C-alpha cells in the first residue's frame, strides 16, 4: 500500500531519484566486471605448474664471448652441483615457467602439412629433468640416456631428437581419438615419436594448464642461455642457492651471473602485475560502494528533513514507527532495484567490449547476482540510519507551524 505514495513522492523529486539510480547502476556495472577480473587474476595466480615449486632454485649464467668448451664445462658444472650438500637433483633447461623468455614451435601431423596443427611451448631438457622438477608422467616412460642430444649438435643440423614427451592437453588436441603413445608428430618436418604423456606441464608465457607444452631430450649448455635448476628441501633453498652460485663461478671464472632465484621468487615476481591490478580493483570497488552508500545516506537524510511534518501527520493518524521505517526502506529498495537493473545491462555491455578487446570470457551470472545482492544490502544498510530517525519523529510535529 506504500508503493503508490512512494511513486508519487519520487515523481516530485525526479532529479535526486535519477542521480541515485544512475549512481547505483554505474557501481553495479563496474562492481560485477571488477569481481570477474579479480577472480580471473586470483585463479591465474593459483595455477600450478606441475613442478615441485617450493623445492626448486634456479641459476642463470652466460659466457663471455664464444666458448668452444661450453658443453664440456656445462657437464662439469652439473657434476659439481650434484655434489653439493642438500641437492636432490640437478638439470639444465632452456626455459622455465615464470622465467620470462618463451620458446615455442609449430607442430604438424604430416611432413607436408602446410599449417601447424598447434603451437606448443618447447622445453629443451637435460638428464634428470623430470626427477628434478617433480613433473609426473601420466603415461609412457622418461627419456633413456642414448636418446639425449647436445644443443650445439642439433643447432648445427648434425642431429635431431627422435622422441618427445607431451603434456596431456597437447596429446588430446593432436589425438582426440585415442592415446598419443607411439604416435608420430613433426617439428619442422622432423618426425619424433611420442613416448610419454606428462600429467601436468604449463606453457611458459601464459601459465595455462590447458595450453600445449612438450619436452625434448636436448642438452643445453650455459653459453646459449641454459638455466641450471636444482632441487632441494625447502629449508635449504637459500643455502643451496648461495653454494650453487659459488660453485659455478669457481668452475668457470669467465662467466656472468644473470639471475639467481628460488622458484617461488620467480613466481612472485611474475604475478606482481596481477596482484597490483587485483588490489587496485578492490580499492575501486570499495570506493564506489562507499560513495554510493554516502549518496543514499545523504539523499535519505534530506528527504527525512523535508518530510518531517508529513511523517508527523502519518504518526498522528496512527502509523507506527515500524511502518515509517518500512516506508523509507521500501522507497530505497525501489530506487536500488531500478539502478541494479540498469547496472546489470551495463555490466553485460561492458563485458562484451572486454571480450572483444581484452580476450576475456563471458561474465558469469554469479558475479552479476553477487553485485546485485551487495547493492541491495548496501542500500538497506545505508538508509537504515535516516529511516530510524524518521521513525522517531513524534506525532506532535504535525501540530507545529
Q: What's the arrangement of secondary structure elements?
A:
Elements: H1 3-12, H2 14-45, E1 56-63, H3 70-82, E2 87-93, E3 104-107, E4 118-124, H4 129-133, E5 137-140, E6 149-150, H5 151-155, E7 163-167, H6 168-174, E8 184-187, E9 190-198, E10 213-216, E11 218-219, E12 227-232, H7 237-251, E13 255-262, H8 263-270, H9 272-306, H10 308-316, H11 321-357, H12 365-391
Parallel strand pairs: 4-10, 6-11, 7-9
Antiparallel strand pairs: 1-12, 1-13, 2-12, 3-4, 5-9, 7-10, 8-9
Helix pairs in contact: 2-9, 2-11, 2-12, 3-7, 9-12, 11-12
Helix run count: 12
How many structural domains in the coordinates? 2
Average pLDDT works out at 86
Structural class: alpha+beta
- The number of strands is 13
Tell me the major beta sheet: 7 strands, mixed
Task: State the low-pLDDT regions, or none.
Answer: none
Percentage of residues in helical conformation: 40-55%
How far is the first residue's CA from the last residue's CA? 29 Å
Overall 3D shape = elongated
SSE string, helices as H and strands as E: HHEHEEEHEEHEHEEEEEHEHHHHH
Supply Rg: 32 Å
Strand content: 15-25%
Outline:
The chain has 401 residues and is an alpha+beta fold. 51% of the residues lie in helices and 17% in strands.
Please explain how this structure is put together.
With 401 residues, this protein is an alpha+beta fold. It folds into 2 domains: 3-46 and 272-399, no CATH class; 101-124 and 135-219, no CATH class. It has 12 helices and 13 strands. Strands 3, 4, 5, 7, 8, 9 and 10 form a 7-stranded mixed β-sheet that branches. Strands 2-12-1-13 form a 4-stranded antiparallel β-sheet. Helix 2 (14-45) runs antiparallel to helix 9, helix 9 runs parallel beside helix 12 and helix 11 runs antiparallel to helix 12 (365-391). The radius of gyration is 32 Å and the shape is elongated. The mean pLDDT is 86.
Amino acid at each position: 500500500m506504500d508503493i503508490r505514495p512512494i511513486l508519487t513522492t519520487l515523481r516530485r523529486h525526479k532529479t535526486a531519484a535519477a542521480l541515485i539510480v544512475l549512481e547505483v547502476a554505474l557501481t553495479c556495472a563496474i562492481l560485477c566486471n571488477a569481481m570477474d577480473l579479480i577472480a580471473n587474476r586470483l585463479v591465474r595466480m593459483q595455477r600450478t605448474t606441475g613442478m615441485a615449486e617450493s623445492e626448486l632454485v634456479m641459476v642463470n649464467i652466460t659466457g663471455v664471448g664464444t666458448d668452444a668448451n661450453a658443453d664440456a664445462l656445462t657437464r662439469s658444472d652439473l657434476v659439481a652441483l650434484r655434489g653439493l650438500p642438500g641437492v636432490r637433483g640437478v638439470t639444465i633447461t632452456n626455459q622455465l615457467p615464470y622465467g620470462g623468455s618463451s620458446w615455442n614451435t609449430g607442430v604438424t601431423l604430416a611432413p607436408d602439412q602446410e599449417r601447424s596443427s598447434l603451437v606448443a611451448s618447447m622445453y629443451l631438457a637435460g638428464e634428470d629433468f623430470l626427477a628434478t622438477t617433480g613433473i609426473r608422467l601420466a603415461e609412457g616412460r622418461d627419456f633413456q640416456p642414448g636418446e639425449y642430444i647436445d644443443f650445439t649438435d642439433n643447432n648445427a643440423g648434425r642431429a635431431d631428437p627422435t622422441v618427445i614427451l607431451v603434456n596431456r592437453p597437447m596429446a588430446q588436441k593432436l589425438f582426440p581419438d585415442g592415446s598419443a603413445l607411439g604416435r608420430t608428430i613433426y617439428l619442422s618436418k622432423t618426425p619424433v615419436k611420442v613416448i610419454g604423456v606428462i600429467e601436468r606441464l604449463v606453457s611458459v608465457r601464459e601459465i595455462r594448464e590447458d595450453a600445449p607444452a612438450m619436452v625434448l631430450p636436448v642438452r643445453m649448455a650455459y653459453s646459449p642461455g641454459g638455466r641450471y635448476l636444482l632441487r632441494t628441501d625447502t629449508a635449504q633453498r637459500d643455502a643451496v642457492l648461495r653454494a650453487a652460485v659459488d660453485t659455478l663461478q669457481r668452475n668457470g671464472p669467465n662467466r656472468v651471473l644473470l639471475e639467481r632465484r628460488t622458484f617461488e621468487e620467480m613466481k612472485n615476481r611474475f604475478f606482481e602485475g596481477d596482484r597490483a591490478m587485483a588490489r587496485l580493483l578492490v580499492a575501486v570497488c570499495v570506493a564506489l560502494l562507499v560513495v554510493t552508500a554516502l549518496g543514499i545516506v545523504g539523499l535519505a537524510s534530506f528527504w527525512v528533513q523535508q518530510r518531517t511534518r508529513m511523517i508527523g501527520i502519518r504518526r498522528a493518524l496512527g502509523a507506527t514507527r515500524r511502518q515509517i521505517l518500512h516506508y523509507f526502506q521500501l522507497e530505497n529498495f525501489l530506487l536500488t532495484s531500478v539502478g541494479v537493473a540498469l547496472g546489470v545491462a551495463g555490466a553485460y555491455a561492458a563485458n562484451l567490449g572486454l571480450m572483444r578487446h581484452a580476450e576475456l570470457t563471458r561474465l558469469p551470472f554469479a558475479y552479476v547476482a553477487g553485485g546485485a545482492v551487495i547493492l541491495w544490502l548496501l542500500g538497506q544498510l545505508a538508509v537504515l540510519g535516516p529511516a530510524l530517525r524518521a521513525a522517531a519523529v513524534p506525532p506532535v510535529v504535525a501540530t507545529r507551524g
